[in-house]
Amino acid sequence: MSRSEKNDIAEIMRLRPHLFILGAGATKATIPNGDKYGRQSPVMENFMHEIGIDRLLEGVKLKTKSKNIEDIYSELAPKPEYANVVRQIEDGIVAHYRQMQIPDAPTLYDYLILSLRRKDCIATFNWDPLLIQAYNRVNKITTDLPQMLFLHSCVEVGVCEECKRFEPYRNRYCSGCGKPLISPRLLYPIKNKDYSQNVYIQDAWNRLQYYLEKACIVTIWGYSAPKSDKEAKQMMLKAFSSQFRMLDQIEVIDIAEEEKIYKTWSPFAKQTNYHLNIHKSLKDTIIGEFPRRSVEGYVKRNIDGWWGGSTLKLKECNSFKELAQLVEPLLINESYNDFKVI
Ligand SMILES: [Zn+2]
Fold first, then answer.
1. 159: CA distance to ligand 1 center in Å?
2. Per-residue confidence (pLDDT) for residue 9, from 0 to 100
């Protein structure tokens, strides 16, 4: 490859997005000690007990012995005689998540959002409001922040059907036209999920496909691609495999056994010639070394053949003031349209 061909490839690659895909493990890692008031993020196993709604099952005849909300909900949802119970379970889930509050100090979600830019994207399977709450405060440091997609909807998403505008549901009224915001229905945990259930979820999946096709780096954080998401995983793989990926990178952040992770994601890794890195923590990933410059840093090292290291890495910050100071040199450069690694 000639030097100019290599430069062309690098130039095109630098413009490509970095896509993050988040599952339940990401929220767990973000609030290891619970939310602002110590509330834990529940797991699917024993979910109803954890959020205090198991009494709704009194008098309900269940075939499944499982305590997993997916098994329970899947069994009850198609039965008309339990429509009322199902609705109460749904209301309980929404009410639980609506109460969750992000802790005051910067969290991993704050680092994540601030470490990406408008061309990048965070797609999450989580219903909880923490990512949007983090976005709303990081937004005060810079407005050049990634797109967010809620693949199963989210309790904090509010939509104005008039203006097609998204904003936090807790604002209650559209800041454009003043009409009440609606909250799109969550995609509940049934085996055969209908991704076209509502236009918001369908739109999120369409946009996810775009990012899967275009992304130079895909980082999967705390998402184990459970069996019930088989169809989702196939859709993601199809979009990802539709392009030439040999120069691209996949990262997985997970505390599970490496062998299990490798097995789950190897169909994706194969596309990239097995450029798969597994990390235990967000800060060990490419954004940890190159915040707001992940794709630039990756291309500089792997295509340009650079042997150096970043001088500005993510580090633990105790306040938002400190976090703003950390990224300030990058934001100043960005105001001059300079996105070089420093
Ligand atoms: Zn409106």
1. 8
2. 86
- Separation of CA 132 and ligand 1 centre (Å): 19
Token couple for 129: 């409001």
Distance (angstroms) between ligand 1 centre and the Cα of 168 equals 13
Q: Are the beta carbons of 123 and 221 closer than 8 angstroms?
A: no
Separation of 180 CA from ligand 1 center, angstroms? 8
pLDDT in tens, 253-266: 999 999 999 999 99
Q: Which residues contact 152 (CB under 8 A, 6 or more apart)?
A: 125, 126, 127, 186, 187, 201
Q: Using pLDDT thresholds of 50, 70 and 90, give the confidence band for residue 226.
A: confident
Q: Give 1 Cα–ligand 1 centroid separation in angstroms.
A: 53
Pairing of strands 18-22, 121-124: parallel
> Rounded to an integer, what distance in angstroms lies between the CA atom of residue 217 and that of residue 201?
23
Structure pTM? 0.95
